Amino acid sequence: MKFEEFELGGDILEALDYMGFEKATAIQEQAIPAILEGRDLIAVAQTGTGKTAAFMLPVLEMAASVPAGATTTLVIVPTRELAIQIDQQIQAFSYFVDVNSIAIYGGGGSDDWTIQKRALTSGADIVVATPGKLISHLNMGYVKFDKVSHLILDEADRMLDMGFVDDIKKIISYLPKKRQNLMFSATMPPKIKSLIKEILHDPIEITIALSKPAEGVLQAAYLVHENQKKGLINSLIADKPNYKSILIFSSTKKKVNEIIRALRNKNYNVEGISSDFDQKEREAVLARFRAKRTRVLVATDVLSRGIDIKDINLVINYDVPGNAEDYVHRIGRTARADTTGVALTLVNEDDMYKFDAIEKLIGKKVLKAPLPPELGEGPEWNPKKRGFSRGGYKGRGRSNGRKKQRYKKK
Question: Which residues of the chain does CATH 3.40.50.300 include?
Answer without folding.
Answer: 3-208, 217-375
